[in-house]
Amino acid sequence: MHSQNDEVAAVSVRGTTRVVGVFGYPVRHSASPPMHNAAFAALGLDWVYVPFEVAPESLGAAIAGVRALGMAGVNVTVPLKEQVAPYLDAVSERARLIGSVNTVVNDRGRLIGDSTDGPGFLAALAGAGVEITGRKVVVLGAGGSARAVVHALAEAGAQVVVANRTPERARAMAERFASVGNIDAVPLTEEALREALRGAAALVNTTSAGMHPQENEMPPVPADALEPTLFVSDLIYNPAETRLLALARARGCRVQNGVEMLVQQGAIAFSRWTGIEHPPVDVMRAAVQNAIRRRTP
Ligand code: NAP
User: Whose CA is nearest to atom 17 of ligand 1?
Assistant: First the structure.
């Protein structure tokens, strides 16, 4: 049964309705449909955002569907983000470098791919008043989300230190982005992190350590290296407060979970599709929080 404020009730689909959506596998837990549909409803736009479960072997056909159906665009999520580029007409330099596309815009029949994850992450930091240009930022992890975050930080002029459980992946990423900015790679150990965090402006967890259902896990960050001047960001939003964020908060650090990055990357995609420069981010944030609350056990 749908609750009174369920997003389904707000959507009215007509012959004129513009369609966007998300391709993922699986996709049923995505918070993006409620987030975008709430924004369309708040602005009275005749648009709808639909989740599509697309098996990797059907991705080419699904992208052909975007063209055939005249969809305004799509988001692309795990595991398709790294596979979609060959089906598009062009991808941004950023998407090419990080090897991932999360937003496709249908520009009068030409499908253009970009990644709004990195810019969304930077917008989340900026919204919290965190200055990173010329400052050291320590990033934990070297997976897909780390590539977007590290690229964005390096491009914005931060001195990035990447620490990963599999050190070769961190080194490979530092080499891959060497032309973008200043990136060092270190192992994910207490000793290396204590050294790396000295004088750092921010610590960002992009690993899945601590994500539901492994809430008890935590990257090996030594508590005594968490100075109150450090800003600590965790890309995880389920649970809302990971063990890392709880520890950082107890040490007096300002903290931020992954909700804001999710909202900001969505707001940028929304702008690209609709041309609306200032999407209703407060509405989008509330819809995401509501969606996460409803699906959290
Ligand atoms: P991914 O590509 O699979 O990468 C996972 C990373 O986590 C790798 O660096 C891996 O290290 C590391 N890792 C996994 N388990 C670990 C552990 N127990 N201890 C230490 N390191 C561990 O995943 P992803 O796509 O980057 O996603 C990572 C997290 O970010 C997920 O929690 C995801 O929900 C979140 N995320 C949030 C947003 C947002 O908008 N807020 C967007 C994207 C992702 P190895 O290289 O050694 O395996």
Answer: 209
